[in-house]
Design brief:
Length: 269
């Protein structure tokens, strides 16, 4: 719709230049179109490119309600420049709307995707004395905090839409669970197509790194991915579908030992 609006405005502009007698009328039309365009329900988006030579940190936090100002007005303004010196950056943030099937945190309220040049650079960054001095300030704003570190096998472009729901899943397989998981995907695929317009889309397959930092806050699943849903209710309806419960869920349970599914909406600046 953005392209259509641009074409309309361009066409009107050309008409104004070529037909002086109607100039005032055409200008009025431009004003009218612009006014209507401002009220159009055009989805906003954020495009990010996950690069195969980078490391990505998925950080999920349960922020204490009355400590949000401490985090966003005191910690981040001071920590951000230090992190940037090392090449670290926040590439996407999400308000968490739900947590499915997991106990990763009591209930995270925010998920942030950070990009790092390497895991070694990340470790150097958090060892910086200036940043370590700020950690008590950061920790005072968190009720709970967790991390996962991943890479991608090839550059992956993702457009996060403001009107969509995004699932970040972390999964641990049972012994020999890969076969059952493959069967689950085959059986569940036609069922998933009945939910959402468009249907759920697998946006990224992320590979957990083998040399993740040793910390109680770091989770090391075997599988990590991002799925786009038209809305959260589609997910709820699908998992409660009788056919899904009867045919797909048993295969899923046979394959998966533990799964954390964090659903969120992208935050746009």
């Amino acid at each position: 719709m953005k392209i259509t609006l641009f074409v309309v405005l361009t066409a009107i502009s050309l008409n104004v230049n070529s037909c002086g007698a109607q100039k005032q009328k055409e200008i009025s039309q431009v004003t009218s179109v612009k006014s209507e365009g401002e009220n159009l329900n055009i989805p906003k988006s954020l495009n990010v490119v996950l690069k195969k030579d980078k490391v990505y940190e998925i950080a999920y936090a349960n922020i204490i309600k009355n400590k949000q100002e401490v985090l966003f007005k005191q910690y981040f303004p001071k920590a951000g420049p230090i992190i940037s010196e090392y090449g670290g950056k926040n590439i996407a943030s999400f308000n968490v709307t739900d947590l499915k099937d997991g106990g990763i945190l009591e209930k995270p309220t925010m998920l942030v995707l950070f990009e790092w040049p390497s895991i070694q650079v990340y470790e150097k960054t958090i060892a910086d004395s200036r940043l370590k001095e700020l950690f008590p300030l950061r920790n005072s704003a968190f009720k709970d905090f967790g991390q996962s570190f991943v890479t991608v096998k090839e550059d992956t472009s993702i457009t996060f839409m403001a009107d969509k729901s995004y699932e970040f899943f972390l999964a641990w397989l049972k012994p020999n669970g890969q076969k059952s998981l493959g069967e689950y995907f085959k059986v569940s695929a036609p069922i998933k197509k009945t939910y959402g317009k468009p249907e759920p889309v697998f946006k990224a397959n992320l590979s957990p790194i083998s040399n993740a930092p040793k910390s109680k806050t770091v989770l090391n699943p075997q599988m990590v991915g991002i799925v786009e849903w038209d809305n959260l209710s589609d997910f709820d309806e699908m998992v409660n579908n009788p056919e899904f419960k009867a045919k797909a869920k048993p295969l899923f349970d046979k394959a998966i030992q533990r799964i954390e599914m964090i659903h969120g909406k992208v935050i746009l600046q």
